[in-house]
Design a protein that fits this description.
This protein is mostly beta strands. It has one domain. Helices cover 7% and strands 34% of the residues. It has 2 helices and 10 strands; from the N terminus they run H-E-E-E-H-E-E-E-E-E-E-E. The strands form 2 sheets. Strands 4, 5, 6, 7, 8 and 9 form a 6-stranded antiparallel beta sheet that branches. A hairpin with a 5-residue loop joins strand 6 and strand 7. The longest helix is centred in the middle third of the chain and has 9 residues. It is globular and about 45 Å long.
């Protein structure tokens, strides 16, 4: 095998008696390199993402954002991106807040495992996804308030989940305990990013 200028790995240039052969098994492993990370099977003990790649790791290492590029999913399906065999899960609201979501602005919109309006009923963020990913109409109500000015946003979706956000908001109910860097997410909205916790 020869290394040519500009090559990032050795290439097989000639097949002969004293050179590697290109048989049914393909070129030697060192000639092709590993598959791209997003095409490899996850390491059940280490990799937080069952699909895609880690785009961001929070400082304590217990929370990451996985990017599943090119495969946007709704709230009911995106949890499969987290490597459950390795102990990772779609991050519930309390874990998100405890691992940095209460104090760290997040400009990357990523789905969280929480619900603030289920079948029309508004609540503080609850763990798990809403009971439906359908839109469903409900009475228009205030569903989020900015932490700094308490300016409200309204919505009429019967099912509303959560996503990370760049500014602090109180969601579901307007109390200090619901403040974090998050925002409402309609369950049928799709994302390629998900927050996974362990």
């Amino acid at each position: 095998m020869d290394q040519r200028p500009g090559d990032s790995f050795p290439v097989v240039d000639v097949v002969g008696p004293d050179r590697p052969s290109l048989d049914a098994a393909g070129p030697p492993p060192d000639a092709i390199g590993p598959p791209p990370r997003d095409q490899q099977a996850p390491d059940a003990a280490a990799d937080p993402c069952a699909y895609g790649v880690v785009e961001l790791t929070y400082p304590n290492g217990k929370m990451v954002i996985c990017l599943n590029a090119g495969n946007a999913m709704d709230l009911c399906h995106i949890g499969v991106v987290c490597n459950s065999a390795g102990g990772w899960q779609l991050c519930p609201p309390a874990d998100y807040l405890a691992n940095g979501g209460a104090s760290t602005p997040q400009p990357l919109p990523a789905t969280l495992g929480g619900c603030i309006r289920d079948n029309g009923t508004l609540t503080a963020p609850t763990p798990g996804i809403c009971s439906s990913c359908g839109y469903g109409a409900a009475a228009t109500a205030e569903i989020a308030w900015t932490c700094s000015s308490s300016a409200a946003s309204s919505g009429n979706g019967a099912y509303v989940g959560l996503m990370t956000y760049a500014t602090c908001n109180r969601v579901g109910v307007n109390t200090p305990s619901t403040a974090g860097y998050w925002a409402p997410l309609g369950p049928s909205a799709t994302h390629t990013r998900v927050v996974c916790c362990r």
